Each structure stands twice: as C-alpha cells, then as structure tokens.
From TrEMBL:
GO terms for biological process: cell adhesion; metal ion transport. Belongs to the bacterial solute-binding protein 9 family. SUPFAM superfamilies: Helical backbone' metal receptor. Keywords: Metal-binding, Signal, Transport. Gene3D superfamilies: Nitrogenase molybdenum iron protein domain. Its main location: other. Residues 1-20 form the signal peptide. This is Metal ABC transporter substrate-binding protein. The keyword Glycosyltransferase does not apply. It is found in: Cell envelope. The keyword Signal applies. One of its GO terms (cellular component) is cell envelope. GO terms for molecular function: metal ion binding.
Amino acid sequence: MAVFAVIFALVLAFASPAHAQDTRLPVSASFSILSDIVKAVGGDRVDVITLVGPDQDTHTYEPTPADVAKLSGTKLFFVNGLGFEGWLPRLMKSSHYPGELVTVTKGLKARTMVDDGKTVTDPHMFQDPERVKTMADNIAAALSKADPAGANYYADRARNYRGALDDLIVWANKQLAPIAPARRVVLTSHDAFGYLGQRFGIKFLAPEGVSTESEASAKDVANLIRVIRRTGIKAVFMENISNPRLVQRIAHDAKVTVDGKLYSDALSKNPEATTYLQLFQYNIRALAAAMKDNR
C-alpha cells in the first residue's frame, strides 16, 4: 500500500472514538465502491449495508426480496445516480423505501459520450478521484443531517479523505509522467474509464458501451482490431466484472496479449482492491506498466 494510504488509515484511526457507538446509524449503498467511500466518511458512527458486492456487476444486478428487506431497515440509501443503477426505479417502487435517497454525484458536472450512436451521460464518476472528493462531501452532509451529533466527526473524516485523494492524484501523475501522450491508449471491456482518461490524458477503447448490458457489434469489434494493429497498442485489459471472452477474442485476432484485469465498477474479493484507494492504485500501476509497451 502506498505511503499516503497508510497515513490516511492512521489519521482515521486516531479520529475515531475509542469505541464504537452503542447504536450506529444504519445506512445502505448501492455498490461496493460507494459503500467503501461511505464507510471512510462515516467511520464508527455508521453501519453500512451493500447491495451489489465486490466483483459484482451493478449494471446487470437484479434486486431480490432479501435486498428489499435489508434496505428497509436503513435511514439513508446512497446511490451513484446518472443512470448507473438502472434497476433503481424498480427497487424504489417495490421497496417503498422509508428513508432518504442520497445521490452522491449531485452538483457534479457529468461528461457525455456516444454510445450506440446516441449521446448519453457517463455515470462512472467514481473513476475520477477529484470528483470523489465532492462525493465524500455530499456523503458527510447527508450523514450530518441524519446524525447532527456526529457532524464534526463526519466533516473531519471527509476532510482527511479528501487529503488522501489529493495525494492519490499527485502519485498517479508521477506514475504516468514517463509515458508520452501518444502512448496513453488502452483497450478494455466496457466504456467505464472515461473520467479516468479525462483526468490523466488516457484514451480508452472499449467494444462495449457505457453499460455491460450493451453488446458490441461485429463492425465495432472489427474496427477495434484494425486500430490495435495499426497503432501498436499493447495495453489490453479485462475487467473484474465483465466476461473476458470478448476482450480475449479481440486480443487473439489482433495478435496481442491481455495484460490482466482492471477494477472498473466494483471492489475485489481478493486483497488487491478491497478499498477505493487500493483499487485506484492497482489500476494506475497496471496501466502505467502496460502503456510503456505501446508503440
């Protein structure tokens, strides 16, 4: 783990009360990455339930009666919004959720992208740590409203988390600095890394669109293969939430090797990316190593 992540963990440990509250604020989060950010801000004052867990795909998730039951016992339900949780309207209707729905991307400007010939909103803001800073502030504000006695506690933890994200951005830029802009090109499964690419000057190519539910056309796949052959792209990745077969097929036909996986819409069950900070460090290291081999 990078030094700044260790420092952040120590800061949060000292910022936490000596023992957890007898009664924590029960909250829920739609998917694992967001759940981790809520835990980072909420600390010992919250009990977080996660609907879509590590290595699971939020795009294709289908709520179950058990999920409705878990959700009903929470005071706040944190979601990404921007269409990321396509199942959210159905869940809200079926659960009659009595708590407050908190959209953590509120107030942030979303990027748009072309998906299947249409201009759509890219919901994957959490791939940009600069935007995650605002998401953390939105989480702290919602927790403070629900638990006024903990307002200073939440504000302190959000401020510490913002500092860790600032360190993360500085570190990432240093990792990527040796790589010329022309070599910053990557192929991955679905179009989940647009915000990361925008922040750090990386061009991501993907056969699938903004959602893993979309299917790549034969024409799109053929075009990607031609681009790889023409440009000499070597940085080719699968994702932890996606079926690897399509990327493996493209890599085979383009005569390149798959470098491994990136963590896109979910944390990992293994130790590589169990927090958002770890996920981002892992991805940047993997990308920097692979892009150095691009022609």
